[in-house]
Design brief:
heterodimer, A: about 375 residues, alpha/beta, Rossmann fold, Arc Repressor Mutant, subunit A, 3 domains, 16 helices, B: alpha/beta, elongated
Chain lengths: ~375, ~500
């Protein structure tokens, strides 16, 4: 691997693979068919340019060929021979893009994973993130404060234990896990469902850049591909494939994190799940998985055990610092939260204290880290 | 063959004196109105003629020219008709010379010669008084309202015929009514804060808003009592002072809401529906500028339920009156400013699903889109922002309005006293540059304030708002200086609720 900042040496075969992967309308299945017919990517590219490739796909697409329409076959043939003539080399060099090809020793997904992409594109200054054990942390975009805290803490814990965090760079749990890992000085792999030159969601433009500097951005999609809702579930199979262990923190019953977990179970990965309250709609998917027999994650060191590593140092979440409960009304107010988010109004009603005393106690608890404020509610943390 | 009569017309919420000059000369019988009349004024011709004839008076079959001076001022409505009719009579020897000197005349005419009421009499009589008129003839129906203006004799008029008879001394003037007293018992539905269960902090926020004039935003799930609470704000507001009451009555009268019981005693509470247009909220119109809800809520409350459902342009248009307490409207033909010193009380759901907090089921994107309907500068202008949750089981009905109102009135008096030498009267209106001189923080309070501001990552403006609220809390507790608990309570009353 090259040092950060230096361009990786791309062979002409690498460039040919990248050019094949970046053809319009290319899918992993089609790419695999082409590479089986022409194992040398130069040959495959030449066949595409000559307009011979689509016929091969047509022969393979059984039982219901999607390309049976003669007009569409003609269109694809033309589009491919035009696009294949475009030389990506200068762009790949300028972007310092890496090309991972299935079957080579540096390809990050194990052989037993079906449907793995034949070619993966990656960019970033921390390629050694791939050489360490990898754990995916996934979850809902509509996460609660508690979920975000857990994701951050777990990301940081794994980073301190020299484990790379894999996630999808989405809002919510994904982003918090990446943030936690990078803040703790670790590496991160962000598998995106767009081209590597597209930043989505826009709000994560800074995080995108941080992952690029401290780890790798990975995609199977051609440059310039924008977000589309159909591509996120497909992307999740790469997250599950790249990771050795998958952790779910707050997943809704039907969300993308559930899909990632299903892929992980299919690939034989360990799936660890943080349990949640039945009152928390963002934890319904987690609890359903636990009911199905997934392993509950109660201590972050469980992840290390699942990786086959010996936990070193203290067990427990993060660096536990002694946190004395402030005096006065604070213990009563904290008690009145009943472990859930509450408004100051509710706390006043439950404790029977006047609002002024609740306000003072809440301020003390906030200052000492026992409560957090979010959207008008106080959350115990 | 020339007569001139004083009258007045409305421009926005203010009266402007108008001189109605009538010239009767030889020529083909005709009746022309010149001097920027609007359609209603131009139509007056038929009414004036019919009213004169119905009153068994002679109509001059000559060339009649009515000029409305000043010529540059646009005249509205039918309130100049009575003046025009008297002018015609005066110019054609129907009235002795001199009887209309220093007399203002207001009123619309019916075909039968009756004198009909006009909107905005208070503002019009006020304008005439300031222009030097000593007597003013007003429609009988408006006489009580007109009597509120001091130092001017009110002459009520029922019909044109009777008015002429009184003017030339054939009959005595009818008695002028006594100015009405402010009537407090004008509310049709009596509500009380005592009906609200629990919600101690939200009630506190309402009290602080009433005492210091702070703008207030409640968020919370549907049916939890946000609206119920907000609608009880008028029951704890201090009453209008006499000067304020006159001002408010004048505005409402000019807007066509003639107060039947005379002077308004209660602070106005305006609750426009969220389908209201921008012009309806801030005022507008193409030729004739009319005051909007912000002006009708002057010295009172503008209540906006479902704040996020109002058109974004209307919400953004609120920012300037919120800051300057005056709304300036410019149209091609005219620019005006209306008073708009109102207190904004708003309610909103926290997110599309409405549940908010730990129960919210909305996606992050949906929540962000919902929040984007309310701009940051608008949200920033709310001194008090609070999430309201359903009452807890076992919550008792709270304190009734009367004692809360007593505390509010006392706190308002304290503020008036403190700000006697300043141009503002409420804590919410203290400008940032004077704030530190007004609150004078002790070192430990200053530390608490800085600590909270830092923990919340408040901007300078946000931190200043915290201090204004804390000052009101201290006023409510009858304390001279701010203490730490006031600052901390203020912080819990101003949260990032969306």
């Amino acid at each position: 691997m090259s040092a950060p900042g230096r361009a990786p040496a791309l062979s002409s075969a690498d460039v040919a693979y990248a050019r094949l992967a970046c053809l319009p309308g290319m899918t992993p299945r089609r790419l695999r068919v082409l590479l089986e017919r022409w194992p040398d990517p130069h040959d495959a590219l030449a066949a595409v340019r000559a307009g011979r490739a689509v016929a091969v796909l047509l022969a393979q697409e059984e039982p219901q060929p999607r390309l049976f329409d003669a007009r569409r076959v003609g269109e694809l043939t033309r589009a491919w021979s035009e696009a294949a003539a475009f030389d990506l080399t200068p762009m790949l060099w300028a972007r310092r893009t890496r090309v991972f090809v299935d079957g080579r020793p540096d390809y990050p997904i194990a052989d037993e994973v079906p449907g793995r992409p034949p070619v993966l594109l990656a960019e970033g200054d921390g390629p050694d993130a791939l050489t360490r054990p990898r754990v995916a942390i996934v979850g809902t975009r509509a996460a609660s404060v508690h979920g975000l805290l857990d994701a951050r803490d777990l990301g940081a814990f794994l980073a301190r234990n020299n484990v790379t965090v894999v996630s999808g760079l989405a809002i919510g749990i994904d982003g918090a896990a990446h943030e936690g890992a990078i803040d703790a000085g670790g590496g991160a792999i962000g598998v995106v469902a767009t081209g590597l030159d597209v930043v989505y969601p826009r709000r994560h433009v800074v995080l995108h850049d941080r992952v690029r500097r401290h780890g790798l951005l990975v995609s199977e999609l051609p440059f310039g591909t924008g977000p589309h809702r159909s591509r996120f579930p497909v992307r999740n199979r790469i997250i599950a494939g790249v990771a050795d262990v998958v952790v779910l923190i707050e997943a809704t019953a039907t969300g993308g994190a559930r899909i990632t977990a299903d892929f992980a179970l299919e690939y034989g990965r360990s799936v660890l799940v943080v349990p949640g309250s039945r009152r928390n709609p963002a934890a319904a998917g987690c609890n359903a998985l636990l009911a199905d027999g997934a392993h509950p994650l109660l201590d972050p060191a469980d992840v290390l055990l699942a990786l086959g590593l010996a936990p070193t140092g203290a067990r427990g979440w993060g660096a536990p610092s002694p946190r004395p409960v402030p005096g006065g009304d604070a213990p009563a107010v904290l008690q009145a939260c009943r472990g859930e988010a509450a408004t100051a109004d509710q706390l006043a009603a439950r404790t029977g204290l006047p609002p002024e005393r609740v306000a003072r106690a809440a301020a003390d608890l906030e200052r000492s880290g026992w409560l957090r404020r979010d959207r008008g509610y106080l959350w115990p943390s | 063959m020339l007569a001139s009569v004083r009258s007045a017309t409305l421009l926005g919420v203010d009266g402007h004196p108008v001189t109605v000059e009538v010239h009767v000369s030889q020529g083909l019988p005709s009746y022309h109105v010149v001097g920027l009349p609007d359609t209603a004024v131009r139509e007056s011709r038929e009414r004036v003629r019919a009213a004169v004839l119905s009153s068994k008076l002679e109509w001059p079959n000559r060339r009649i020219t009515v000029n409305l001076a000043p010529g540059g001022l646009r005249k509205h409505g039918a309130g100049l008709e009575l003046a025009a009719a008297l002018g015609v009579l005066g110019a054609f020897d129907g009235l002795p010379d001199g009887v209309l000197d220093e007399v203002g005349v207001l009123g619309e005419l019916g075909l039968d010669g009756s004198v009909r009421p006009v909107p905005g009499v208070l503002a019009l009589v006020d304008a005439l008084a300031r222009a030097g008129a000593r007597e003013v003839v007003v429609p009988d129906a408006n006489a009580r309202e007109a009597a509120l203006v001091p130092d001017i004799t009110i002459r009520p008029a029922r019909t044109l015929g009777e008015l002429r008879a009184s003017l030339i001394g054939l009959e005595p003037w009818p008695d002028a009514p006594a100015p009405p007293e402010p009537s407090a018992s004008e509310d049709d539905e009596e509500v009380d804060l005592g009906e609200v269960r629990g919600l101690s902090l939200a009630r506190r926020a309402l009290e602080v808003a009433a005492a210091g004039g702070h703008h207030l935003l409640f968020t919370g799930p549907p049916g939890v009592g946000k609206t119920m609470l907000a609608r009880r704000l008028p029951t704890i507001l201090p009453p209008l002072a006499r000067g304020e009451s006159l001002e408010v009555t004048r505005i409402h009268s000019a807007a066509g809401y003639a107060p039947e019981h005379g002077l308004m005693a209660r602070r106005p509470f305006r609750a426009p529906h969220h389908t209201a247009s921008t012009a309806a909220i801030v005022g507008g119109g193409s030729r004739r500028l009319t005051p909007g809800e912000v002006t009708l809520a002057h010295r009172g409350t503008l209540f906006m339920d479902e704040l996020g459902e109002f058109p974004p342009t209307a919400l953004e248009a609120l920012r300037q009156p919120l800051e300057e307490r005056v709304v300036r409207i410019a149209r091609q033909s005219v620019t005006m400013s209306f008073p708009a010193d109102f207190q904004l009380v708003a309610c909103s759901n926290p997110c599309p699903c409405g549940l908010g907090g730990p129960l919210c089921r909305c996606g992050d994107g949906a929540r962000a889109r919902y929040r984007r309907r309310l701009s940051e500068p608008l949200l920033d202008r709310f001194d008090l922002r609070l999430a309201v949750t359903p009452p807890e089981p076992g919550d008792e009905p709270g304190e009734p309005s009367a004692p809360v109102r007593a505390r509010v009135v006392a706190a308002a008096e304290r503020q008036c006293h403190r700000y006697a030498d300043w141009p503002w009267r409420r804590n919410a209106h203290v400008p940032a540059r004077a704030l530190m001189r007004v609150v004078r923080l002790a070192p430990d309070v200053d530390a608490a304030w800085r600590g909270v501001s830092e923990a919340r990552r408040l901007t300078g403006r946000g931190a200043a708002r915290l201090l204004r609220v804390a000052r009101t809390l201290a006023d409510l507790a009858d304390e001279t200086d701010l203490s730490e608990v006031h600052v901390l309570t203020a912080a819990s009353l101003r949260d990032d609720v969306l």
